[in-house]
Amino acid sequence: MSQFPTSALAPPRARPRAAVLALALGAALAGVAIAPAAFAAAPKGGASVHIAFEEFTLPNGLRVIVHTDRKAPIVAVNVWYHVGSKNEQPGRTGFAHLFEHLMFQGSENYKGEFFTPFELVGTTDQNGTTNVDRTNYFQNVPTTALDMALWMESDRMGHLLGAIDQKTLDEQRGVVQNEKRQGENQPYGRRISAKLYEALYPAGHPYNWSTIGSMADLDAASLDDVKTWFRSWYGPNNAVLVLAGDIDLKTAKEKALRYFGDIPASATLPDMATRIPKRERDTEEVVPDRVPQARVYRAWPVAQFGAADGVDLQLFAQVLGGSAASRLDARLVHRDRIADSASVSINDAEISGTLVVMANVKQGVDPGKVRAAIDEEIKRLIEQGPSAEELEQAKTASRAEFVRGVERIGGFGGKSDVLARCAVLLGKADCYRDELKDIDRASVASVQTAGRKWLGVGSHTIVVQPGDKPASSLPETASAAPATQPAPIPAADPRFKTVASDLDRSLGVPDTKTFPALKFPAQRTAQLSNGMQVVLVERHETPIVQLQVEFPGGFSADQGRKVGTASFAMAMLDEGAGEYGALQLSARKEALGAELTSGASLDAANVALSALTDKLDPSLDLLSDMIRRPRFEAAEIERVRAQWLAGIKQEKARPQTAALRVLPPLLYGAGHAYAIPFTGTGTEASIASLTREDLLAFHRDWLQPQRARVIVVGDTTLAQILPKLESRFGDWKGEAQAPAVPDLAQVARPKAPRVFLVDQPGAIQSNLYVGELIAPTGDAGSVDFDFANGVLGGEFSSRLNMNLREDKHWAYGSYSGAGNALGQRPWIAQAAVQSDKTVESLGELKREIEAFASGSKPIGDAEVVKIRAANTLSLPGAYETTDALMAQVGADLRYGRPSDFILKYKARNDAMTPALAQAAAKNLDPNALTWVVVGDLSKIEQPVRALKLGEVQVIDNDGKPVR
Question: What is the pLDDT of residue 10?
């Protein structure tokens, strides 16, 4: 648990390549310092990964780091400002995060939403986040759109304040406050983490307050306050620009100087000294929350990012609770069975780190017993140290995580992110090399010493106990009264100077006229001797091989069985197979640096492997065991069953998953294969009644080689991989008769709108969902409908979000979309809105949907241009990772599409017109909508009834009628 970054954008929308059900739904230069060309990220004999970078600093202080990676025609533009919530003062909390939002509202030379020019060039992975130490903005753009991206980033760095007025401030203040409500309106929400940090870090410590700030401080923030905040710190001398991807040093120098060189420096934000609290005693508190089970948090202030023993502490945490084979899992979850889950995490921030142990207490167990067991395991690990085997497993897992992250040039954990974090927090862009060396150097003794040093007296424990009121009802802690006067503006740093630029910003954003061509990598196919189909896409840039074995069925195969059988059976494949029990299997995976997962989706069941190239053979052995020789041991079934039932209770307690449990049966009707909770977890009654025989029967019926598709993407060839697969699967024979694929009957839409209300007492937001069935993914019109939906709710700047977030600021976001399915697809629109705007928000959703479907607000040329660009111009860079390739190939096979489907998809988007999009929009019938509203019915029920959206019924979180 940590103070997670908070986002100014919605999660990235699903592209066609991610075809699974999306519901469960940056001679005048100051000089060039050239970094070492490469480094090895793995131990001797292991796979190596190289990050080569070069860097230079502009005269105004902007540090620029350049990494060249030509595998895709995209450039990651990543701007980090060394400004976070720790630089605020009590009474002015939340300013850094509020300003992150304001910086997306246009600039002096660009009037409009910041995202619009990026949408028009097919930008991907675009976001902005704030944490205690920094604010960052990142996006991947086509190489030809780099000038546009640098113009936009430089304009908001150097030319922002004239675009911020009172209306903009009020709008984004409202958006941030709804983001805050959304995080608090969850079980174990923001108030819990806030209390943890308030206890560990004393008043006045820069980590004492939450990044999102207090409601009172946000309410009190004035226009002068926020402008002073920007003038004080958001200069180029407090920033790092990382350009990674299809770019070289010469180009980066020219463009960085042209776009950023004339921006004057601000004051230089002074570095803060390490400030780890020295707590003299352990403390504890009990916090009531409306939750289904107790949870224990144990936390300590620990080593900061880059500390000499920071890696040793990370390895200690990995052994203690970082994996399914960890000490805490073995004791709490497997042996004593007093907790449903346990974990350890470290937020290693700039001036202090925070280590948190978390355990979900099994129903009926005293939380004190869980806390005592946690303390015993920590004490034992400190006294004895990890075993040599445990330490090597932890090292391998850490290296493998790094290797997988740096396959990407952008995004969290990608190469630009790694370089930027090191440069900003430690002033050394290649600090990751030191971390990797520290992993290799770490010993049993050094890890033991780090644990002993940091996990002594000084912890804080929070026990979250189930209660009648949500934690969001607790008052916020006020460390100071809201500020009433703007802070003084510090003087600009005189060491830096500007360089004149020939850029005329009055000409506007540079126009991107050409774009990279779409080239989907070649697929090679083969067949094993038993008929198993194999599809390979080679990708040799990273020493990783991804493999997925997919079978038909999935959630829909529960038809005629106990609901949740598919998901439960597939999950059990990972709980012991071949010669390995559950813990031994987890330990073996960790020792190999392999990721092995099994699960089900709406129409498929799959087992997936991500293996280091040099560990491929033993990793494939584990994959084969999981698929062919799962144990289904009775004791493990009972353990997983208890965890599963607790998970269903957690789903019911969270408003979003509560809605997605009840909505599908309402849409599809009793008896339909899709009339199930879209989480796939089933019901408490069905899971309670599952037997070992039920699981064996599912495995026998649905995991059959003649139905299997093996998709391989990564660092191998057909000549290499086929013999490996043949030796492990070639002799596998399935049952003579396999069950038929589920009957996906056509469901008629309701004859009138319906409204279903689910009570969430004490909720500070209402979660609004509205759905309707549309044609399957394989329907000839599905591409057209998805295009049209982009206009309504598929993009940040689409109609729903611009209305409820940007115009009304009643919600943090509002989107719509249809997941993929072999049968009729569920189209769903959603928004989480402040409770006192529930009825108004429902009215706006209704109005927008009706205007969209009827054409009373016709789809315009500009909207078509935007959605076409978003859908197609991103495609050349969309397949940078093996995950993306795997998803696209898998979807094409699952839905019976040709291997060149993505080219056909692009062609259809290129041909789209307003008339075609409007015709597709008419597939929605506003008179057949099904609404689900989860909120505090004591506040919203009667107003919703008075709105007369349709017949209203109150149901419980199992979908059963209440009134």
Answer: 34
- The residue among 932, 958, 930 whose CA lies nearest residue 682 is 958
Q: Which residues pair with 816 in a beta bridge?
A: 829
Q: Report the distance separating Cα 213 and Cα 175, nearest Å.
A: 13
CB-based contacts of 741, cutoff 8 Å, min separation 6: 552, 553
Quick: pLDDT tens for 481-499. Answer: 887 777 889 999 999 999 9
136: three-class secondary structure by DSSP: strand
Q: What is the CA radius of gyration of the chain?
A: 27
Alpha-carbon gap, residue 241 to 219, rounded angstroms? 32
Look at 14 and 723; give whichever has higher pLDDT: 723
Q: Which amino acid is at 230?
A: F
Look-up: residue for tokens 């649905």? 702
Strand ranges in 636-764 using DSSP code E only, listed in sequence order: 709-714, 754-759
Higher-pLDDT residue of 16, 156: 156
Taking 60 as the threshold, does the pLDDT of residue 624 lie above it?
yes
How far apart are alpha carbons 598 and 571 in whole angstroms? 6
pTM assigned to the model: 0.91
**What single-letter amino acid sits at 416?**
S
> Angle at the Cα of 151 (from 145 to 156), degrees rounded to 5?
135
> Which 8-state DSSP code applies to residue 107?
B
**Structure tokens belonging to residue 787:** 């295009």
Share of residues in the chain with pLDDT > 90 (%): 90
* Residue 659 φ then ψ, to 5°: -65, -40
Tell me the average pLDDT across 759-766: 96
The three-state secondary structure class of 347 is strand
> What are 244-302's pLDDT values in tens digits?
999 999 999 999 999 999 999 999 999 999 999 999 999 999 999 999 999 999 999 99
Among 18-22, 501-505, 699-703, 909-913, the range scoring the smallest mean pLDDT is 18-22
Read off the DSSP letter of residue 88: S
- Between helix 388-405 and helix 582-592 the angle, nearest 10°, is 60
438 Rama sector, left if φ>0, alpha if ψ -120 to 50, beta otherwise: alpha
Structure tokens at 577: 């197979």
pLDDT of 48 strictly over 90: no
Q: In terms of Cα–Cα distance, which of 608, 597, 598 is closest to 569?
A: 598
How many Cα atoms occupy the beta-carbon half-sphere of 26 within 13 Å?
A: 30
Note the pLDDT of residue 607.
98
- For residue 946, give every residue at least 6 positions away whose Cβ sits within 8 Å of its Cβ, in sequence order, or none: 839
- Cα 669 to chain centroid, rounded: 32
Q: Report the largest interatomic distance among the alpha carbons of the chain, rounded to a whole angstrom.
A: 81
Integer Cα distance of 936 and 856 in angstroms: 34
In the chain, helix, strand, coil percent, each to 5? Answer: 40, 20, 40
Two structure tokens written together for 535 = 């599809």
Does the pLDDT value for residue 527 go beyond 70? yes
Please state, in angstroms and rounded to a whole number, the distance separating the CA atoms of residues 909 and 902: 11
Mean pLDDT of 886-913: 96
Q: How many Cα atoms within 13 Å fall on the side-chain side of residue 295?
A: 24
What is the CA angle 618-623-629, rounded to 5?
A: 115
CB of 753 within 8 A of CB of 641? no
SS3 527: strand
Mean pLDDT score of the chain, rounded to an integer? 92
Q: How many CA atoms lie within 13 A of 142 on its CB side?
A: 23
Q: Could you tell me if 541 and 716 are in contact, meaning their C-beta atoms sit under 8 angstroms apart?
A: no
Q: Which two tokens stand for residue 785?
A: 């409908």
Q: Is 350 exposed, middle or buried (0-12, 13-18, 19+ CB in 10 A)?
A: buried
DSSP string, 871-884: HHTTGGGTT-SHHH
Q: Which residues are CB-neighbours of 635 under 8 A, at least 6 positions away?
A: none
pLDDT tens-digit map of 834-885: 999 999 999 999 999 999 999 999 999 999 999 999 999 999 989 999 999 9
Residue 792 DSSP label: I
